[in-house]
Design a protein that fits this description.
Strand content: 25-35%
Largest sheet: 5 strands, antiparallel
Structural class: alpha+beta
Distance between the termini: 108 Å
């Protein structure tokens, strides 16, 4: 009797292959879910944006002279007169010329910005659209010209 032997996978080999494929797909699915959660967290958490904003604002204010705080705007004099604050109806915190000309956004997606001054100590309170709120204090140096 002549038997034609065809090479093929055995049942055990097929089951092992299916197990490996399903395990690989489960790992990929888990990593995809983890990545999407991280992206969602990064997009909703404003802590990094706040830290970058504080650094930028401190560099802008270093060596400047406080003129006044009025209507939630901070007016300072460095090389020229500058104004910092949230324009009415806009979702960003801006640096402009004291007359409002020019436009340099420093922070986006904000709900409200409150600026108060007491004896050359300026307090910034920023609330983002996602209800996260942060405070910053800046003390202007005496006798800066």
């Amino acid at each position: 009797m002549n038997l034609n032997r065809i090479k093929a996978f055995t049942l055990i080999e097929c089951l092992v292959a299916l197990f490996v494929i399903s395990g690989s797909l489960m790992v990929v699915q888990g990593l995809t879910k983890l990545l999407s959660e991280d992206v969602r967290y990064i997009n909703t958490d404003k802590t990094l944006d706040w830290q970058l904003f504080c650094g930028m604002l401190r560099r802008e204010l270093d060596g400047s002279e406080l003129i006044k705080v009025e209507n939630n705007y901070l007016y300072v004099k460095k090389n020229n007169d500058l104004r910092f604050g949230q324009s009415v109806g806009s979702p960003d915190f801006r640096k402009t010329h004291s007359s409002g000309r020019g436009y340099q956004p420093m922070l986006f997606d904000i709900k409200s910005a409150e600026i108060k001054e007491l004896d050359k100590l300026v307090k910034f309170k920023i609330t983002f659209d996602n209800e996260q709120s942060f405070d910053m204090l800046y003390k202007f140096q005496e006798g800066i010209e």
